[in-house]
Amino acid sequence: MSTVDTTTSPSGPSRSNLGARTGIATVCLSGTLEDKLAAAAAAGFDGVEIFENDLIASPWPPRQVRQRCTDLGLSVDLYQPFREFDAVSPDVFTANLRRAEHKFDVMEQLGSDTLLVCSSVSQDAAHDDDLIAEQLHTLACRAAERGIRIAYEALAWGRHVNTYDHSWEIVRRADHPALGLCLDSFHVLSRASDPAGIGDIPGDKLFFLQLADAPRLDMDVLQWSRHHRLFPGQGAFDLSAFVGRAFAAGYTGPLSLEVFNDVFRQSDPGRAAVDAMRSLLFLQEQVEVGHPAVPQDRARVTELPPAPDLTGHAFTELAVDDASGKQVANALAGLGFTHTGQHRSKPVQLWQQGSARVLLNTTEPSASNESGAAVSALAVDSADPTRSARRAEALLAPVLPRTRGADEASLAAVAAPDGTSVFFCRTDDDAGWPADFLSTGRSPEAGVGLTRTDHVALTQPFDHFDEATLFYRSVLGLHPENPTEFAAPFGLVRSRAVTDPAREVRIALSVALLRRGEEWAPGVSAPQHIAFATDDIIAGARAMRARGAPLLEISGNYYDDLDARLTLDPELLAAMRECSVLYDHDEHGEFLHCYTEVLGSRIFFEVVQRIGGYTGYGTTNAPVRMAAHRRLRVARSTGAPLNER
Ligand SMILES: O=C(O)c1ccc(O)c(O)c1
Ligand SMILES: [Mg+2]
Questions:
Q1: Terminal Cα distance for the chain, rounded
Q2: Any known ligand binding at 455?
Q3: Which end of the chain is more exposed for a tag (fewer CB within 10 A), N or C?
């Protein structure tokens, strides 16, 4: 696996006059104000929302911040937040106006003309729409004298005003040209408000749009907002409908991200800003495609080549060393694969069975510092590999340099967030990548009946799980499924698959829910596997065992529990127990699967049989598999015999 600098892209995002301006709140990014501004500019944002705390902590006077923004090509689109302004007694109101005048001074120096005022959350806030409207009206009069506008935002946990329709009612009553709304998608969508009502608000009253996605969580909305917001496309909210409504209503301001997220707050700001920009590019494409009524020039900043159809996994490449290479090759032979090709110019073997293909590459250093094997690349068959690559580049995916011989196929590749290379290819093209392999003289046999690659499962680095979801979703056009969580022997794991609509390409992403240390159980981190499909797993498992495949033995308790929970055909249950085949089912069908032992430090293979349209990945059985892998590892390292099954 190559280590790639994912913060830069050779072509960079193009700033154009087309479409909405893009913005990002400084609160989205980690570091000091200086770091945040540099990162936002490098990722191609047009503007920023300056979060007050970032300014207060900065040694730069506001004028210097403005100069820095100008030098970086950034506008200061919003100053925020101004809290607890309204619904107060007359003496507090006087003090609040004084406080506001001070902030207007700051904004003047910052060159920012819009102040965000949040609805009050104080226990003392008066439940009085007329009072709030009157106080906001007064504030708007003062602001207008300074050439400033007030954008009123209903926080989802506001004491009295906590829905966007209520905030609109207040702004309507206050009736001042310098007073309008800030609509924050989190506050609107977390409360399950119907965004259709946005269409009833005059466009010139929509002063500012803040965008954030979030996972569906059943929890206190303030905690949800402060810790779990995501960039658009990473969560469960329909941001394109939200933005589409605002555009249709006549909103002409920027699309600005405001994402409070525990992980992003600790991430490299340059990289997080690229992730953020990718989310906006993809969102604008979705708005353009999903809401054709929206004036075209509002919907896009960049022309994105549409994602071509994907027709399957072309191959998966494993980086191996001498020891793990032999182990993996033996396992592949046991699984019925044939070593059919040898690369013309590199020490890379092609192993094949049906349309399942694995490359063993001994050139690349292993990704982990333990000796072992790791997935270095996954290759997908694309209807138009060139267009796939252009799209990836437009979405700021780091393009990988390729070294290739004179008459070898050119494979476009980009780096996924975990460093895995993603290749776009056409296996059926005469001049395609298979032509780079010289035949070993062995043609693929029927093997044990494995037909294709079903999925590739990659444990993601803790900090890049949500980034990875958006990467595969936007760059490859895959659809994220709902995340699931399970309790594994070494901690909770979240998993989320991304697939194309035809389910030809499936990538199962997983992550430990807490950064996983390995203090007491070394070598349990970041497993990866490739799953191959079969139409008859019991016959396949027997054949694999006969060939000496290192199949993983599953505990008898597992089958006793299956027997207790389900009324499976006793013969099938006995065969599953004999062959260590696991079982799952969903509303569409059934799933039978078995695993190999871990080869090297983190790789293993899975064989799966999908019956009747089962769509999952047998995630419910993952803890059983992990415990079995652990048991083997201990037995191997101590030389202790394995207990009876
Ligand atoms: O969590 C908050 O306090 C907060 C502040 C400003 C915002 O725009 C917002 O949406 C939330
Ligand atoms: Mg907000």
A1: 37
A2: yes
A3: C
**155 CA → ligand 1 middle, Å:** 7
The CA angle 9-15-19, to the nearest 5 degrees, is 130
Q: What is the C-alpha separation between 479 and 471, in angstroms, rounded?
A: 11
Give Cα 47 to chain centroid, integer Å: 24
Structure tokens at 216: 């569906």
Q: What is the pTM assigned to this prediction?
A: 0.93
Annotated binding residue 609: no
Q: Are strands 348-353 and 437-439 parallel, antiparallel or unpaired?
A: unpaired
Which ligand does the CA of 27 lie closest to? 1
Residue 18 C-alpha to ligand 2 middle, in angstroms? 25
Please say whether the beta carbons of 273 and 43 come within 8 A. Answer: yes
Tell me how far apart the alpha carbons of residues 45 and 15 are, in angstroms, rounded to a whole number. 8
Burial class (CB in 10 A: 0-12, 13-18, 19+), 228: buried
Which residues fall inside 5 Å of ion ligand 2, going by CB? Answer: 184, 210, 258
Query: Number of C-alpha atoms within 13 angstroms, CB side, residue 401?
Result: 5
Residue 203 backbone zone (phi > 0: left; psi -120 to 50: alpha; other: beta): alpha
The per-residue pLDDT for range 560-612, each reduced to its tens digit, is 999 999 999 999 999 999 999 999 999 999 999 999 999 988 999 999 999 99
CB-CB contact of 79 with 116 (8 Å)? yes
Residue 183 CA, chain-centre distance (Å), reads 24
Distance 210 CA to ligand 2 centre (A): 6
For residue 285 and ligand 1, the question of a CB distance below 6 A is answered with: no
Q: What's the rounded Cα separation, in Å, for the pair 605 and 219? A: 38
Binding residue per annotation — 317? no
Dihedral of CA 280/282/283/288: which sign?
Answer: positive
pLDDT digits (tens, 9 = 90+) for 340-357: 999 999 999 999 999 999
Q: 528 pLDDT band (50/70/90 cuts)?
A: very high
Q: Is 61 helix (H, G, I), strand (E, B) or coil?
A: coil
Cα(159) to centroid(ligand 1), Å:
14
DSSP 599: B
How do residues 260-272 score in pLDDT, each as one tens digit? Answer: 999 999 999 999 9
Q: List the structure tokens of 579.
A: 């062959």
Q: Which residues pair with 38 in a beta bridge?
A: none
Cα 507 from Cα 478, distance rounded (Å): 9
DSSP three-state, residue 311: strand
Q: For atom 5 of ligand 1, which residue has the closest CA?
A: 81
Task: Give the confidence band of 546 by pLDDT, cuts at 50, 70, 90.
Answer: very high
Q: Phi then psi for 241, rounded to 5 degrees?
A: -65, -40
H helix or E strand, kind and range, residue 473: helix 465-475
* CB of 225 shorter than 6 A to ligand 1: yes
With residue 131 as reference, give the H or E element that holds it.
helix 129-145
Give the mutation target among 53, 121, 153, 221 for probing the ligand 1 site: most ligand atoms within 8 A of CB: 153
- Concatenating the DSSP letter of every residue in 178-196 gives TEEEEEEHHHHHHTT--GG
Is there an atom of ligand 1 within 6 Å of 53 CB?
A: no
Domains of the chain by start residue, with CATH = 19-290 (3.20.20.150), 310-638 (3.10.180.10)
List, in sequence order, every residue forming a beta bridge with 487; answer none if it has no partner.
492
Ligand 2 centroid distance, CA of 129 (Å): 21
Phi first, then psi: give them for residue 448, nearest 5 degrees: -110, 20
Cβ-contact 96, 132 below 8 angstroms: no
Q: Does ipTM exceed 0.90?
A: yes
